Please model this.
Amino acid sequence: MHSIDLQVLDARMAEQIPAYATPGSAGLDLRACLDAAVTLAPGQTTLIPTGLAIHIADPGLAAIILPRSGLGHKHGIVLGNLVGLIDSDYQGQLMVSCWN
Model:
């Protein structure tokens, strides 16, 4: 198994570190790190900060941000770029592009 360095950029996220929900979970859930509520009008996109940064370090690996089926099916919210690809050397805050 490979390790990924996680940096908490916003103290509010320190108690909500991504973790596997069940032994069969394929991925980790990210949470929005917002100062105020966000309203997305139909057709509008925005970048949602996570308050987290990662460093993969291994140039042979990458991370991906994928949509959760429930958000799209129940609320019409999908990723603005369909899949978020995080390069191994990217160390900035993880941002999630959302589209309504």
Summary: The domain at 5-99 is CATH 2.70.40.10 (Deoxyuridine 5'-Triphosphate Nucleotidohydrolase; Chain A).
